[in-house]
Amino acid sequence: MSSVAPLILEPAQPASACVIWLHGLGADRYDFQPVAEALQRVLPGVRFVLPQAPTRPVTLNGGWSMPSWYDIVALEPERALDLAQLEDSASRVLELIEAQRASGIPAERIFLAGFSQGGAVVLHAAFRRWAGALGGVLALSTYAPAFEPGQTLGAIQQAHPVLCLHGSEDAVVDPALGRRAHDWLAERGVAVEWRSYPMGHEVGNAEIRDIALWLSERLAA
């Protein structure tokens, strides 16, 4: 995995909750720093941990090296990818969860968030790898490449609330793929919500406001 240390944004007051936020393909740990800083202004006490993916060749992009949580080999069938690299990235997320627990943050107040490829990793970490409690999952403009039809979830995983957010005009990750991940979770009893926005493969102000409200409600609970 990446040898680059995560960017950690401490709140103005002692941290009582944490959001671990993964960037998308080709971005870096600074990509969501402005969003995290904006959220901290309305979410006092929330630490943001922004890890960086390792730089590696991406087959779909002509073999060029860039920050990537896993290699994408082809778009069909539905983004053929390097599952071992997906597993490695999910393992890194679990390590970050454990580090936050060791720092005194309860698992119930640790949230996972990810955009695009980063969202695929946090969904995989939360529902295929992590067996403990979580505050919830934010899945932005993403999909779930390793969710399997026959998979079941335990009661603890079913209790992870999820907010799926997607641009209706997304030409990079088809909204239908995001909706499929939402439906897979809903069919297994997860409290999952779907929000659609008139935008492409991006993050907008209305989306950030919805994220702030969703996090506020769960932190208050």
From TrEMBL:
Gene Ontology terms, MF aspect: hydrolase activity
PANTHER family in UniProt: LYSOPHOSPHOLIPASE-LIKE PROTEIN 1 (PTHR10655:SF17), LYSOPHOSPHOLIPASE-RELATED (PTHR10655)
Family in the record: Belongs to the AB hydrolase superfamily. AB hydrolase 2 family.
Gene3D superfamilies named among the record's database cross-references: alpha/beta hydrolase
Organism lineage string: Bacteria, Pseudomonadati, Pseudomonadota, Gammaproteobacteria, Pseudomonadales
Domain of life, per lineage: Bacteria
Keywords: Hydrolase
Identification of the protein by name: Phospholipase/carboxylesterase
Ranges of residues in domain Phospholipase/carboxylesterase/thioesterase: 7-215
Keyword Nucleotide-binding applies: no
Protein species of origin: Geopseudomonas guangdongensis
Keyword Ribonucleoprotein: no
InterPro entries linked to this entry: AB_hydrolase_fold (IPR029058), LYPA1-2/EST-like (IPR050565), PLipase/COase/thioEstase (IPR003140)
